[in-house]
Structures are given as C-alpha cells and as structure tokens.
Write a structure and sequence with these properties.
alpha/beta; Aspartate Aminotransferase, domain 1; Aspartate Aminotransferase, domain 2; 2 domains; 7-stranded mixed β-sheet; 9 helices; globular
C-alpha cells in the first residue's frame, strides 16, 4: 500500500482505510455494473440500494425513530445556516434563540437574522470562545421558534458534553464535527445537520435529520430547492444528489457498525485518543497550553498553543518531517490544532504525542 502520512486535517478529515480500499476497488468499475462509482446514475438500482442501506445504517447507529426524516443535501453547514431559518423562522411570530460558542455559531446567527428576530442567549466571544455555557447560565424562552447550538466548534475546540435542556422548544444542532462520534438521544432534537467531511465521509453531502412536527412550521411560498418537504418527498433526489458522497457515507456507517461495533465503542476510542493529548498538555508545565477550558474540551479537535508563534512554526515544520501533517491552527486563534475524528488511528495520535514529548525536551528553555 502507498505510504500514508498522519493526517490531522480539520476537514476534509481522515477516512477509514478499509473504506478507502473499497472506494479504490469501485473507482474504475463497480462490481456487476461495469462503470465507475463516479459515473453511476442516481436512478440506478445500485444507487437506490446504497441509499436504502445508508438510511438503515444511520437509523441503527443513532436509534432514529420513524418520525424523523434523513436527508442528503448539498451546500454544507453554511447552506443550512440559511435553510433552517428560511424554513423554521420565516413568517413565524416568534424569535429564534441561538447559543454562540465559536466561529460557526456566530456565522449561523448572521444568516438567521436575515429571516427574522434572533435572540443570542449566550455568547463566548468576549472570552475568545474558550468554553461552552453551563445549563445554569442559560435562560430559555418558551415562545422561541427553536433553539440553535453548535455541539462542537471545530476551530476553538470546545464541545458540549451534553446537549442543553430546552424544554419543549425544538432544539436545532450543527453537529458537523462530532456527528457519530458518540451516542446521543435524538429524541431531544428537532433537527440535526452535519457536513459529511469530518466524520461521515467526503465533502459534498450534508446530512439533515428532521422531526415530522417541524414540517408544519414551513411556509408554503418557498423556492423549491429551499423547502425541506420537497427533499423529503423526493427522497433527497429532487435534483441529482451527491452520489459519490452518499456512497462513501454508506461505507463509513457500515465500518462503524461492522468493524467498530457502534457509537458507544467509537466514543471509547475517541476519548482514549483525546486523553493522550490532553494529559500531555496538562503535564507539560505550560509549554503546551490548551485553548479550551478543561470542562469544555472537544474530543474531536484539540487546539493548543506553544510559548511563541515562532516556536509554533518550528513545531509545524518539524512535525511535517515526522509525517505529522495539517496541524496548523485556524488563523483566528493561531497555534496548533489536531483533529482526531473517528477514523484517526490510535497509532497516529500516539505518534503525535511522542513527537510533542520530544519537541518539548529539545526546545524548552
């Protein structure tokens, strides 16, 4: 097999090797079809079977009941920042409430404000988004159209350990970077959305899971492509769907079920990987400083800084020489970011930890 480096990219993220091997097999010619997976029609029997399997796999992994619909749309989470308020806020005599814990939550607010009144219940910007709020810091309004939050902020590396309790108000979540990283109670949510390119597959597909009762909120005068009801009716094929991306998501869900054993098992692996890095950061005597507060740390995106920007650049240069790639932190907070999604092998995280120990020994003054 061609040599693979340790890929800590925040997205598109690392994919499981068995999935990549299957893609490689099917790239030139699908078994029994004789054409590439990139060429197959979304009207074909093959794609219909793929679509049905990925639906079944997601329902099994997430324990999704029949009153929820699973959609495969396009445009990423950024498009959902608009599509959600267009469907659920436009024309409502109620504001939408948003919890802002990082860059993506702030972007979601900006788009929602184009469609109606938005109340920001909590905003971590003044503290540079180093934590998520506690339940006691949040006062929810029973009149809200919905409450929106981002379960894991990819840039700042902060994550909700549990979803906020919003009572009977529909809870809407951007779960792009920790989707399928751990079990959760989907009955607590009205709508979940996630770009596939972190934990579920390649870029190109956005997974939206929406509860039946929210459909009654949707106005009747929407543009066709903006209406969730149309995509439900047409089983995510009103327009040509992202066939390749859906196919890879199916392979990833199959891998999670058959190779890993489900979300409880993958959560154990994710916590093990994250602990290797956070324990080292905590024991480094301040040489490595985590961005997120301890009780808000992400198990997906470990963001941290070194004593100086110059030393951070040296870290990145030397890390690449050890096959440790795409570790540069986002420009808004600088530093280092290790994204350790479901498919990131434990051995890769161990390699990063060992390099960090060596780097500190060689550069600490």
């Amino acid at each position: 097999m061609t040599k693979r480096v340790h890929n800590f990219s925040a997205g598109p993220g690392v994919l499981p090797v068995p999935v990549l091997e299957t893609i490689q097999r099917d790239m030139l010619s699908l078994p029994k079809a004789g054409i590439s997976v990139l060429e197959i029609s979304h009207r074909s029997k093959w794609y219909i079977e793929i679509y049905e399997e990925v639906q079944a796999n997601l329902r099994k992994l997430l324990n999704i009941p029949s009153n929820y619909h699973i959609l495969f749309l396009q445009g990423g989470a950024n498009f959902q920042f608009s599509m959600i308020p267009i469907n659920l806020l436009r024309g409502q005599n109620a504001p939408a409430d948003y919890i802002v814990t990082g860059t993506w939550g702030a972007k979601a607010v900006k788009e929602a404000q184009r469609e109606g009144e938005v109340r920001v219940l909590w905003n971590g910007k003044d503290d540079n988004f180093v934590r998520v709020p506690k339940q006691t810091e949040l006062t929810f309004n029973s009149d809200a159209a919905y409450v929106h939050f981002t379960s894991n902020e990819t840039i700042q590396g902060v994550e909700f350990p549990v979803e906020p309790d919003v009572g009977d108000v529909p809870l809407v979540c951007d779960m792009s970077s920790d989707f399928m990283a751990r079990p959760f109670d989907i009955s607590r949510y009205g709508l979940i959305y996630a770009g596939a390119q972190k934990n579920a597959g390649p870029a190109g597909a956005t997974i939206v899971i929406i509860r039946d009762d929210l459909l009654a909120k949707i106005p009747d005068d929407l543009h066709t492509m903006l209406d969730y009801r149309i995509h439900i009716k047409k089983e995510s094929s009103y327009n040509t769907p992202p066939v390749f991306s859906v196919y890879v998501v199916m392979l990833v869900t199959r891998w999670l079920l058959n190779d890993i054993g489900g979300l409880a098992e993958v959560a154990k692996l994710n916590h093990q990987k994250a602990s290797l890095l956070y324990n080292l950061i905590d024991e480094s005597g301040g040489f490595y400083v985590g961005h997120a507060q301890t009780d808000s740390r992400s198990i997906m995106n470990v963001s941290f800084n070194l004593p100086t920007p110059e030393l951070e650049q040296t870290f990145l240069t030397e890390a690449a020489q050890h096959d440790l790639h795409t570790l540069k932190g986002h420009r808004s907070i600088g530093g280092i970011r290790a994204s350790i999604y479901n498919a990131m092998p434990l051995e890769s995280v161990q390699a990063l930890r060992d390099f960090m120990i060596k780097f500190q020994a060689e550069h600490k003054t």
